[in-house]
Amino acid sequence: MSASKPLRLFIDIGSWLITVAITLVGLAALTFFIGRVLPIDPVLSIVGEKATPEVYQKVYLELGLDKPIWQQFIEYLGKLLRGDFGTSFSTSRPVLTDLLNFFPATLELSTIGLIIGVVLGVPMGVASAYWHEKWPDHLLRVVGLVGYSVPVFWLGLVGLFVFYYLLGWVSGPGQLDVFFVGVVDRITGSILIDSAIAGEWEIFFNAISHMILPALLLGYYSLAYISRMTRSVMLDQLSREYVLTARLKGASEFRAVAGHALRNAAIPLVTVIALSYGGLLEGSVLIETIFSWPGIGNYIYSSLFAADMNAVLGGTLLVGMVFILLNMLSDVLYRALDPRSREFAK
Fold first, then answer.
1. Rounded alpha-carbon distances, angstroms, from residue 157 to 151, 154, 217, 252, 288
2. Is the pLDDT of residue 341 over 60?
3. 3-class DSSP state of 59
4. Are 295 and 105 in contact (CB under 8 A)?
5. Dihedral (C-alpha) 164, 166, 169, 172: value to the nearest 10 degrees?
6. Which one, out of 40, 286, 318, 345, has a CA that is 20 to 30 A from the CA of 9?
7. What's the total number of domains in the chain?
8. Is the model's pTM score more than 0.85?
9. Residue 188: inside a domain, yes or no?
10. What average pLDDT does range 13-35 have in this prediction?
11. pLDDT band at residue 318, thresholds of 50, 70 and 90?
12. Where does the ABC transmembrane type-1 domain start and stop, copy by copy (predicted)?
């Protein structure tokens, strides 16, 4: 039996790698072909509308747009395998360089949003399940429903109008005030970490004042999803016999709920939180656009309207790879938390 473990592990890893490869190729194909059928001329975005037909034709041939679309896609995949995402027409820099510059800001904002969503969403879901069909349950479900159903761009605009324009409690769009931009050297790409390393605490707190509102909005969006899923999982766990047995043995309500039910609910919640994190990374496009946040979402949005398909494709593939990594991480954590899923231990 032990001799089959390495073979089983090798087969599982191979299957996972094949799945990842197929997913990435499918994602690349989908975004590539959609980009080619959009009524946007990438040549005009480079040469401008006043370019001569000769200049237009020269750039058209240089981009390889005269070739069959399937051949263009094969050549694009070949470049991806070499780590070449192409050059951004908008910034005149390699797309990979742009992605490395913009992604840390998105990662920072989404991570803070996820922390807010988990810290508030999980207790809300537990409380909602514990007081099932009572007024706390109804109140918490309404709070979650608003965050889950109201468009995030509308909440962003209202938040800016109320808390920035009317009340002045937070700073406006952007990552920093204009006179702080470029003062701190980029080390990690996170403005909070880099300013703390440099000891620039005025910049650190200025960055927080700019980050509060978009992070809270992302956190609210994440909270709505996490609290609803936590409630669903906890309702199932609280109805199990082991919870009733714990209560009959004299365990306190806190121990029965938090020590037993929530502990077992944490296993499926790992996947919920991982998917929520991926959703924040993807859904930050609107928030970053509204708040002029220099992240990957704003980069993709600007590139799309500039017909910069190399940048759009590169950003989309990056988000797809992050989703795959998060799913892999959630699977590993699921196996670690649930001994029943460890098939290799047999």
1. 10, 5, 11, 45, 12
2. no
3. helix
4. yes
5. 10
6. 318
7. 2
8. no
9. yes
10. 78
11. confident
12. 103-334
